[in-house]
Amino acid sequence: MNYETTIGLEVHVQLATRSKAFCGCANNFGAAPNAQTCPVCLGLPGSLPVLNQAAFELAVRTALALNCQITDRIQFDRKHYFYPDLPKAFQISQYDQPLSHDGHLDIPVQEQTKRVRIHRAHLEEDAGKLLHEAGDGASLVDFNRAGVPLLEIVSEPDLASPDEAFTYLTRLKLILQYLEVSSCDMEKGTLRCDANLSVRRQGEAALGSKVEIKNLNSFRHVRAALRYEQERQVAALQSGQRIAQETRLWDAALERTRPMRSKEEASDYRYFREPDLVPFSVSPETIGRVREGLPELPESRKARLMRDDRLSSYDADLVTSSRRLADLYEATVALHRQPKAVANYLISELLAYAHVRSLEIEAVAVEPAHLAQLLQLIEAGAISRPVAKNVFVEMIESRVPPGEIVTRKGLGQISDGAALEGIIAQVIAANAQTVADVRAGKASAFQFLIGQCMKATQGKANPQRVAEQLRQSLSQQTGGS
Amino acid sequence: MPRITAEEVRVVAHLARLSLTDEEVRLFTQQLDTILDYVQQLQRLKTESVSPTTHVLPLANVLRPDQITPSLDPETVAALAPQRKGRFIQVPKIIETEPG
Ligand SMILES: [Zn+2]
Questions:
Q1: CA distance B53 to B59
Q2: What is the pLDDT of residues A168-225, one digit of tens each?
């Protein structure tokens, strides 16, 4: 018996505004507890929320980038539930007149493009943060996060596997980063994801019971939790059990999901209009202007780099995998018109640099002018590649132009025959056994001698010249004996 | 025919975190039924041409600039709570991860 999987995702993204959604408290991470709160975000009686213009604009921008329709008459509603992180006992959200609806996002699935429909994207406010202290029977509340603007992006259940869900999330995050609407940092909670999954026998018309999964702290967790849940549900159906519609929590340590509480029905939230917020609308002219002003998104940027710069699909994918990397690439190519060389250097050296240090690419400061100069030095043969590697690191860390580093440290490549001759003579003298091995026809021994010459010059020797001269010296010596 | 059942009253009471005795459930069911009966008179009005009114003022697109204004002193905020720990507000231990 074959089973089909249906997955939908709800992504909450904190919008990168200066102040909160409905009050002037600062919207930033890491302040002292309750230092960024006021009567509005604490829900004190008599306070009046007023929507933040930037939050509204960022939301509209994102909705349009996700090909959504902007609702004619946008309204806010109160969603009621009791929880200590929710000071008003309701969340300002949107129910039947959300900011936007009916969009889509295209994702690559097995060399094809799959269109994932977006049900809606709406604005709401974040809740506070609860800290659970071990043992002493108390939880602590910090309301700094309460009232931070959130955009909730709800996909249709169009994803057919945990891998597709992973791809969708990666693509969505990339678009949000290109739009510069959010820092998209899952560790800091500026991007969060809930998933729902159901399975049914192949060919069955009705969807299976929907299970919602929470507590997913990274895209990897999302995929792992969905894989676990898919297997659990198939196994249950195969043994004749029914799947309960419920909410489950992902336990990353045990790598399994476990039931939470039975899911409250939507009507239990007792939605009603937020009487303190008036309706909103966006004129067709504004929609047109915002759409015009959208940055080039990853897909079209990739296509352009493949077309104009003749990058391979693989290289173009990596270069556009972060907006910062793509910007750096283009700024460097503008100064040094060698697209392939620039792409290679960024992919091999910069990504490695960031990876080794566990840094986000955004956190590495590279001046396009410095990178262009470094590549020019390599191409002109002024420095060897191994030296270039070190100069690259120093250039990032000191922000000194590479030309200056090379001059100051005397790192210029040694291609001069007379200078190399002395070094080669020393290496031959010090490695008699290896020299004998070379003469006996052992290729690796020859490479070893080149390595010794490079080492003796701290990598500054031109390796090709070294090879040529070394070969010459060895044959002369043979001839002379 | 009653417009609201005792069971519905119990559900609503649970959602509002009210604990009611059986006697109160009986009493409120009957009172709410009377209120709903009264409100039902509105159903007889023809409202097809009236758009829903959630705001009485003809205002739209009221926005504020994205500027930071001073927050309350965290000491004042913590002092508002019945229980505190440092500048945190303290509540009874919460076991499950948040809903919503
Ligand atoms: Zn506030």
A1: 12
A2: 999 999 999 999 999 998 888 999 999 999 999 998 888 889 999 998 989 999 999 9
The number of beta carbons lying within 10 Å of the beta carbon of residue B5 is 11
- Compute the distance between CA of residue A29 and CA of residue A37 in angstroms, rounded to an integer: 13
Decide if domain B6-44 falls under CATH 1.10.20.60. yes
CATH for A433: 1.10.10.410
One-character DSSP codes across chain B: --SS-HHHHHHHHHHTT----HHHHHHHHHHHHHHHHHHGGGGGS--TTSPP-S-SS-----EE-S-------HHHHHHHSSSEETTEEEEEPP-SPP--
CA of A144 to the centre of ligand 1 (A): 8
Q: pLDDT grade, residue A477 (50/70/90)?
A: low
Q: Is residue A291 part of a domain?
A: no
Q: Which residue of B14, B51, B59, B68 to mutate against A (max A Cβ within 10 Å)?
A: B68
3-state secondary structure A315-327: HHHHHCCCHHHHH
pLDDT digits over A31-51, tens only? Answer: 999 999 999 999 999 999 999
Tell me how far apart the alpha carbons of residues A294 and A175 are, in angstroms, rounded to a whole number: 11
Q: How far does the centroid of ligand 1 lie from the alpha carbon of residue A58, in Å?
A: 20
Residues A103 and A42 in one domain: yes
pLDDT at A168: 97
Residues A258 and A331 in one domain: no
The one-letter amino acid code at B63 reads L
Q: What is the side-by-side order of every strand in the sheet holding B88-92? A: A129-132, A138-142, B88-92, B84-85
Whether B100 shows a pLDDT value over 50: the answer reads no
pLDDT score, position A481: 42
Neighbours of A45 (CB within 10 A): 5
How far is the C-alpha of A256 from the C-alpha of A219, rounded, in Å?
15
